[in-house]
Amino acid sequence: MLLLTEYRTPARTLPNRIVMSPMTRLRSLPDGSPTRDVADYYAQRAAAGLIVTEGIWPHSTGQSEAWVPGLQTERQVEAWSRVTEAVHAKGGRIFAQLMHGGRKGHPLARIDGSWPAGPSAVLDEDRVHLIAGGKADPIMPAALDRADIYAAVEHHARAARNAITAGFDGVEIHGANSYFVHQFLADNTNLRTDEFGGSIENRMRLPLAVVDAVTAAIGARRTGIRLSPGNPQFNMFEADPAPLYRALVTELDGRGLAYLHLTDNDTYGALADLRPRWRGTLIANVGENRAATTAEAAEGVLRSGVADLVSFGRHFISNPDLVHRITHDLPLAPIREDLLYGRTAEGYSDYPRWEPATVAAH
Question: How far is the C-alpha of 334 from the C-alpha of 35, rounded, in Å?
């Protein structure tokens, strides 16, 4: 099975082509540091070819909701270092996803009480978790001025340096699924008339500035980016994503990044359209229900040539030994949906592995 074969790049060798996708789980302390359960959680899944963490805010002004962890302070860096040490001790590789909320958020959901702000003052209809519990009705975000935009770019670079200090193998810039970078790309969230809005060139300016700042800070081979062209989820709209993303991926291709992590959807076949424009490593995220089994779906993507690696999300939540289960064609455990977001190990790092005796019987 191609999915289980080694994959080599100039910077690193992966033992298989299975990537753990970033997934928000809300396991942090009041100061934004990950809890000790986080180290167990990721170490349990270290057999993945690559782990990409849940989204981590680069600065408290980009915290999307309560209990999302940060990578800004010394205490946060120290806490994340325990996570990377645990993963490396198990032979794993782990990238930190830098996830700035932009217009997403609420003062009562942020440790600094700041007001959310994005490229334009456009309401995000999602309700976010609050520090005191429950969820808040959405509030109108502010529009960032130029100084705020450039500050956010620097926040990404600083957080990337903190990630390397914490022992991460690299970082993934979250440019997808309605967050800060994506907000500058999408039609309905970027209504600016200055150099950051309007034309394709202008809408790419912020994403490319973030990429260039991060690569200058830690190097291109330790920097990946995730994009979700034409993804209609999360209150985003792009009438015709092809021209913008073709231009963006062409620009990114010349920067020598570690990888492009691409979310595909039925609205716009991004993988087929953009693969010819990307010469580097491409990670495909195609959802986990397109074929009879996870392995079949992933194998088909790899065999088609549109991607080099495939990322899995929800199956990794309830199957810490997902690679083992795929290798031996074993059943997958279901998710305890009511425990997806919580404060403890329950429904997080307490999912059992497949018993060896069961493997032999199977």
Answer: 24
Amino acid making up residue 343: R
Which residues does 225 contact at the CB level (< 8 Å), separation at least 6? Answer: 172, 173, 175, 207, 211, 252, 257, 259, 260, 261
pLDDT, tens digit, for every residue of 108-151?
999 999 999 999 999 999 999 999 999 999 999 999 999 999 99
Name the nearest CA neighbour of 316 among 338, 294, 284. Answer: 294
Rounded Cα distance, 81 and 70, in Å: 13
Residue type, position 345, single letter: A
pTM: 0.96
Please tell me which residue, 267 or 216, carries the higher pLDDT value.
216
Task: For tokens 């990337």, name the residue.
Answer: 160
Q: Please tell me which residue in 7, 41, 42, 179 is annotated as part of the active site.
A: 179
Among 16, 21, 94, which Cα is nearest to 317's? 21
Q: Please indicate whether residue 179 is annotated as part of the active site.
A: yes
DSSP type of residue 169:
S
